[in-house]
Amino acid sequence: MSHETVYAIASGKGGVGKTTTTVNLGTALAQAGERVAIVDTDLGMANLAGFVSLTPDATTLHDVLATDASIDDATYRLADNIVAVPSGTGLDDYAETSPEGLREAVDTLRTKYDYVFLDVGAGISHETVLPLGLADAVIVISTPEPASVQDARKTIQLTDHANGEVAGLVVTRVHPDSDVTYDEIADQLELSLLGAVPEDGTARESVYAGTPLVVYDPESPAAVAYRRIAAELAGIEPPSNDADSTPTTDETTRDIDEGERDDASSAITEAESDP
């Protein structure tokens, strides 16, 4: 899959670990030396805004889509090789946005970074469907719960409606003693299984610590799973110590020079309450 560089991370509903997956896949690839941008395309219910220290007048994707700023103005360095483009949290700013400008923003990021991850909002709306068609491929996120699997099916249908392509399925919050294998879930959805991320208390700890799990505890089961999925996407060999921890189932980073954005490079805080 290494020819695909822009991925939309999508789910039919919130609370399945979509933002956590976006951040950890992006961070894992950045650790491997890839240049990565993660973009919050959930314009109404922003998640990634919590990943950078923004002043009230800081530039966000809302400003870009309102044609008041460039995508570079809304790009914040998180760590080596990785940047974030957060959406704003103000409803007034949201009212001024035009999602159609997202295509140009993504095209610009595509030329500057090796991988771009679009954190897509849940539900059915124009701003939700649009990123599914702009991405090279969509990664569908689901838990093993039947309701979540049904919502994942709707995401696949939306992707088809947007003329997008689905890369495969990531199942989160899995338990080794489950009666259902994750390959069976993927088969139900007629998708390839990219990976299964186990339920891992350390994942929640990392959220509250404000650090991606693959940095907070790189040897934890969920971190190992995220690194393996990232390696699969990039077409590279996963770290050799990953094998025993897999769940068993069949610079172009932009330095921020403006004074009001000095803290952005080191501030990584909670973006999603569900790992």
UniProtKB/TrEMBL annotation:
GO BP annotations listed: negative regulation of cell division
Keywords on record: ATP-binding, Nucleotide-binding
Molecular function terms from GO: ATP binding; ATP hydrolysis activity
Region (Disordered): 233-275
Residues that bind ATP: 13-20
Keyword ATP-binding (UniProt): yes
InterPro entries: CobQ/CobB/MinD/ParA_Nub-bd_dom, MinD_archaea, MinD_FleN, P-loop_NTPase, ParA/MinD_ATPase
Keyword ATP-binding attached: yes
SUPFAM superfamilies: P-loop containing nucleoside triphosphate hydrolases (SSF52540)
Entry GO CC: cytoplasmic side of plasma membrane; cytosol
Domain (CobQ/CobB/MinD/ParA nucleotide binding): residue spans on this chain: 8-210
Alphabetized NCBIfam families for the sequence: minD_arch
Name this polypeptide is given: MinD/ParA family protein
Organism: Salinadaptatus halalkaliphilus
